[in-house]
Design goal:
2 copies of one chain form a homodimer. Chain A is of the alpha+beta class. The first copy, chain A, has 2 domains: about 1-45 and about 120-230, CofE-like (60s Ribosomal Protein L30, Chain: A, 2-Layer Sandwich); about 45-115, CofE-like domain (CofE-like fold). In chain A, about 25% of the residues lie in helices and about 25% in strands. Chain A is built from 6 helices and 11 strands. Chain A has helices at about 10-20, 35-40, 55-65, 70-75, 120-135, 190-200, and strands at about 30-35, 45, 80-85, 90-95, 100, 115, 140-150, 155-165, 170, 190, 210-215. The longest helix of chain A is centred in the middle third of the chain and has 16 residues, at about 120-135. The radius of gyration of chain A is 19 Å and the shape is globular. Chains A and B meet through strand 8, strand 10 and helix 6 of A and strand 8, strand 10 and helix 6 of B.
Chain lengths: ~240, ~240
């Protein structure tokens, strides 16, 4: 993919890059797009030189030995602090996602003082790309916007879904029989997260491969969104 | 795959099932095997009628409206209780994995009162399958033993790796440049977990598809194990 700038037509870029790679987008495909290019196309880039740190941001930045303007940008996208310890800032974003630094980072953002924010509404971003791909190719696809998450208890990061359109993000096996005809009680698979993780394996942080096309997966049909992947706080044992 | 029983040669079963599916196992493949068949082959099935609940198991089971023998089986595999609330029992297993019910469940286990435990040492299980596949096919593969995990903050389950052989489970981008030559500071991807998630998408809880062969993925080379995926408690913000 070329460098993405504010206002770029991501759907068109995806179709063009697909053609150059010999990939035709077809109905049933799952198109996984990393958050970073969506944020860039939507102009969700902040120049830290324009950010005025609050008293809290200054205080936290001092303790964490971090840039107070970056901390301020994080707090502005935050609805709840989950952990604030050592130099870690784990927060719940306005969308409900629990992640480090409200998903704000500078990797692969051009310029010294610029950081990317998560899209305002990643489900809407996914739906917009889905519609554009339909217009351009006639194909009915599912679209997932992915981002990189750390996890409690486990080392390393994985990609999960933050925006979903054209599929249900969860496959629900509850009530179905297992192979010995016991009823399966608790198996609800977050397939949109698994698709995002699978896609990450063929992307590359350093090269310009921010999109993966997954073929041959039979998605749970229906309209769904990534808000279904956010555990309500009253059911959450860890908030 | 056929039904797996204690003592079965899983490596041989995988090669046979591959042949029947037209899949040849080749060097560089990643063979993902679900925990359930590994536990069965290793005889890690417990008949609850032989389990005597402790006082604690009886007390917890009463509060949770659960089978005290099942609770006892869980506690016997537990090294630390992480959350005990409503009917949820989130524990750290002897291996260090944080999961519900110490990974013990009855789905796809034959018989009314039988449950499967996690393998004693899933890394050793993975290495054993890897060696057997090498013997049978000459191919140098990576092997991942996968299991289904719930997550803090997010709905639904995904598959992660509990055993790894023949690859490093983590791809470390730290110190490498991003596309604007900034140094990437924090990006350490748990690719073994992402491979386990990708594999789940082509498995099926109800059918007999407990193994997936992933082709064309360039694994981080080297000897690694799933213990590298366990966050040390002193670095963990959520234990």
């Amino acid at each position: 993919m070329p460098l993405i700038r504010k206002g770029d037509d991501l759907g068109d870029q995806i179709v063009q890059a697909g053609k150059e790679s010999g990939v035709t987008i077809e109905s049933g495909d799952v198109v996984v797009v990393t958050q970073k290019v969506v944020s860039k196309a939507e102009g969700r880039i902040v120049n830290l030189s324009a950010v005025k740190p609050s008293t809290l941001a200054n205080s936290v930045a001092l303790q964490m030995n971090r840039d107070p303007r970056h901390v301020e940008a994080i707090l502005q996208e935050t609805s709840r602090i989950i952990r604030m310890k050592d130099n870690h800032l784990i927060v719940e974003t306005k969308h409900g996602f629990v992640c480090a630094n409200a998903g704000i980072d500078r990797s692969n953002v051009e310029g010294e003082d610029r950081v990317s924010l998560l899209p305002e509404d990643p489900d809407r971003s996914a739906e917009k790309i889905r519609r554009r791909l339909k217009e351009l190719t006639g194909a009915d696809v599912a679209v997932i916007i992915s981002d990189t998450f750390g996890r409690a208890w486990r080392m390393g990061h994985v990609n999960f879904a933050i925006g979903v359109a054209g599929m249900k993000p969860i496959r629900d096996y509850r009530g179905e029989p297992d192979m010995f005809s016991h009823t399966l009680h608790v198996t609800v698979m977050a397939v949109a997260d698994e698709l995002a993780s699978a896609a990450e394996l063929v992307m590359n942080k350093r090269d310009r491969v921010p999109v993966a096309i997954i073929k041959g997966y039979r998605c749970p049909m229906g309209e769904g969104n990534a808000r279904e992947l956010v555990r309500p706080i009253e059911e959450d044992l860890f908030r």
